[in-house]
Amino acid sequence: xxxxxxxxxxxxxxxxxxxxxxxxxxxxxxxxxxxxxxxxxxxxxxxxxxxxxxxxxxxxxxxxxxxxxxxxxxxxxxxxxxxxxxxxxxxxxxxxxxxxxxxxxxxxxxx
Length: 111
Fold this sequence. Notes:
alpha+beta
């Protein structure tokens, strides 16, 4: 899970919201997750991500991208595509992806 929120991004930018249901710790998932985090950071226009999971297995990851081109570059990345395919076959009971354009953004942080 992410402990620090992504903040201070000047709109417009894009989000990819990945919501999934999977078992608590499927074999090979943690290693693949670490690899995906390494790879996405190499995508020009990637701005960060936030992630959370419930004890019941529902997970939400929000990726932030400067533009659609950078988001689509991530979607087409060969290792990312292979991980998605493997996940459908072995890890996920279900998932959904929502792509959005952020036109307004604000936050709060206690000092």
